[in-house]
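User: Hey, quick favor. My workstation is busy. Could you predict this chain's structure for me?
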Amino acid sequence: MKFEIIEAGSRIGGRQILGVALYEDFEAIDLSPLPSSIALLVEMYIPRENFKAKKGRTLVVPLACGDTQCVVLAGLGARSEARPDDFRLAAFLIARTAATRGKGTVSMAIPGASGRGISRAIGEGVALACYRFEKYHEHDEDDRFAVPECVAVLEGNSKALAEGYTIGECQSYSRDLANEPGNVINPAVLADIAGNLAAEKNLKITVLDEKELAAKGMNALLAVGVGSTSKPRLIHLEYSPKSPVRTVALVGKGITFDSGGLSIKPADYMTTMKGDKTGACAVMGAIKAAASLELPVAVHAIIGAAENMPGGGAYRPDDVIKTYNGKTIEVKNTDAEGRVTMADTLSYACEHKPDCVIDIATLTGACAVALGETTAGLFTNDDKFGDEFMEAAGTSGERFWKLPMDDEILRKKIKSPIADVINSGGRYGGAITAAMFLENFVPKDTPWIHLDIAATDFVKEPYSYYIKGATAYGMRAITTYLLSIAEERLA
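Assistant: No problem, here it is.
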């Protein structure tokens, strides 16, 4: 797919789908980007359909004139309340209409498209509109879905549109991986996929198998995967640009399927557990985006990949495990396995002396209870770092909420009488005690953020620009943060 730029003062006609994003303030309605004859028809159609241009609403006006099939009006809501995500959604709605109708050419007029931030959001929205996971479906003759060949944007910023489209495509790459079932992707296969990514983007890759993990003393990662016939892997991808402005380590939870182990999940809770590797998929997408955009930021993407199964050799409640950094874990619940794998991967990541560490994981149901299904949790040992990330996440459209790490009474819940730490602090404050557990494996002087995406990684009912299935939530926020670091150097 390619982008074209329509110069200021021009009309957006001559394509199969014409899209206009409108503010809800109808006294300022602007259909001037449309050819005058089409604008007149649309203007008459709006009151008949009682279209109010509320955020996320669309109106499709069918046409029978030349090559143009229809006009799509996308609401932005009130001008005074508009955010970057509203422009991303408007672009998604216009491009998605074109894709579902199988139309190859689209023109869109979106207010503020000359600005780099809004053009980047438009590019992301278009890429997200092109996403489907149809690998296992038979072809449906009535299905007209097709990625548009060309999208023209009135007064768009060509570089920012391309950046946004790349970020959106990398999120789609992450979603594809997360959507793959456990019988297709196991730890060894995930390592092979990472190898393909390394070859494609000229990244360095290191993969440690179960023998090498044992030799290094990565007993926590090994313990989680020991009950499965598919043995664990540690995957380390490195993007190393010349003269990097900063080095960032990304750590992703890579549980390719989570049965709960011996603390087995009820059947209803086991579905979607193919998505317990979403953190790993997100960091793979983020390093792919960093390399594709040639960002001047060195990135380590480190994944602890395992399958948590209740085999005869599986790790047990009451086991004590010595981790890579020497601390010991008392196991209370084998279904609190993600933090156990990340104990070793976080220690390994910090060994490479990054300027900061971001880990991302589908870690706790408690976070879903606390924040709902559309907001993820953020925890940090460095408030300045956390605030910088939150600002970047805000422009990315992915919602995070910072939760506290200073409750010493809660911290006592993960103290063990026989080990350094317990892997489960119980139901209440569970997202916080999980983050406190992880903090044990990050040096105090290393700025660190933990992102708990357990509520947001999978969509059961479509909303905004997410269709049903894996979201790879957090990948775009991480990439936007990396971009903000790069832009600091240019400023």
